[in-house]
Amino acid sequence: MSNEAQRKFHILPKIINGGIAGIVGVTCVFPLDLIKTRLQNQQIGPDGELMYKNIIDAFRKTFRAEGFSGMYRGSAVNIILVTPEKAIKLAGNDYFRFHLTNADGRLPLINQMFAGAFAGAFQIIVTTPMELIKIQMQDAGRIAAQSRAKGQSVELPSTLRITQKLLHERGILGLYRGIKATALRDVTFSGIYFPLFAALNDLGPRRDDGSGGTVFWCSFLAGLAAGSAAAFIVTPLDVIKTRLQLIKKGMDEKEFSGIMDCVVKTFETEGVTAFFKGGLCRVMVIAPLFAIAQMVYFLGIGERICGIEH
């Protein structure tokens, strides 16, 4: 293959691969993501009480109260919007890695980090509205349970109603509540995850189909390890983002005016451990999500659809 052919980058199949990878990954791990959101949003009550003691307790109570369908509350908008979100993230990282590679074919670590960070920055265009709506849907059951315990009746909102309300009250910018916190989390995560994944993935054996790619099981394990590390490191940023994006708080729960206000109030009332609420659950969500997504991404479905050699 000539150098010119080797240096040609096809964006369309990458976008297709990213979209398919996102749909498969999110469908597999969404119930865990729902539990993560509820654990992160719950604040300590006036008497020190908590609705959920841990991941298992949250799973048990949620399933008992809302059934199987409740475990996928808010999944529709997430699955719909994760297609462009993962397409931007995965294809964007490849695109920036391609253009930041030196003429001699080397890609320094700092360039890998910039490529991941740029991909994370672009994805927030889709991620912020998706996460905002998803969080309201995921946490509605927790707030409703609190209200029922106090003898009040609460109607669970629908995705359409939440979207219409945000657009009516705040316009299109209402869908971008918490965008700064989202950017802080996603840029940091991508800047850590993609270089680490690439380093681990390169350690694996190559496929024997002539593509030079790593075998699929190795890509899965690399995604699992890199996803676990990056997810845990940025958990405090995810807690802040989740709390800022929750519009309807539970009873006696604090409101936050911005990132620093959220950091200060959370630290003062709940201590440093609050910034790692749902951390294990987040790792359990992100690690398999990216492991599955990376494995599906490297299957080359998009190249086959477009008739391009993988």
TrEMBL record:
Which GO biological-process labels does this protein carry?
Answer: malate-aspartate shuttle
Q: What InterPro entries does the record tag this protein with?
A: MCP (IPR002067), MCP_dom_sf (IPR023395), MCP_transmembrane (IPR018108), Mito_Solute_Carrier (IPR051028)
A GO cellular-component term linked to this record: mitochondrial inner membrane
Q: Which reaction does it catalyse?
A: L-glutamate(in) + H(+)(in) = L-glutamate(out) + H(+)(out)
Taking the record's annotation, the residue ranges forming a coiled coil are none
Q: By its UniProt entry, which PROSITE patterns does this protein fall under?
A: SOLCAR
Leader sequence range is: none
Principal cellular location given in the protein's record: mitochondrion
Spans of repeat Solcar: 9-99, 107-203, 214-303
Q: Which SUPFAM superfamilies does this UniProt record tie to the protein?
A: Mitochondrial carrier
Q: Which residues cross the membrane?
A: 15-35, 220-240
Q: What's in the keyword line of the UniProt record?
A: Membrane, Mitochondrion, Mitochondrion inner membrane, Phosphoprotein, Repeat, Symport, Transmembrane, Transmembrane helix, Transport
Q: Does the UniProt entry include the keyword Oxidoreductase?
A: no
Which cell locations does it reside in? Answer: Mitochondrion inner membrane
Q: How does it sit in the membrane?
A: Multi-pass membrane protein
Q: Which GO terms describe its molecular function?
A: L-aspartate transmembrane transporter activity; L-glutamate transmembrane transporter activity; symporter activity
Q: What does this protein do?
A: Responsible for the transport of glutamate from the cytosol into the mitochondrial matrix with the concomitant import of a proton (symport system).
**PANTHER family in the record:** AT03939P-RELATED, MITOCHONDRIAL 2-OXODICARBOXYLATE CARRIER 1-RELATED
Hey, which family's this protein in?
A: Belongs to the mitochondrial carrier (TC 2.A.29) family.
State the protein's name: Mitochondrial glutamate carrier 2
Q: State the taxonomy lineage.
A: Eukaryota, Metazoa, Ecdysozoa, Arthropoda, Hexapoda
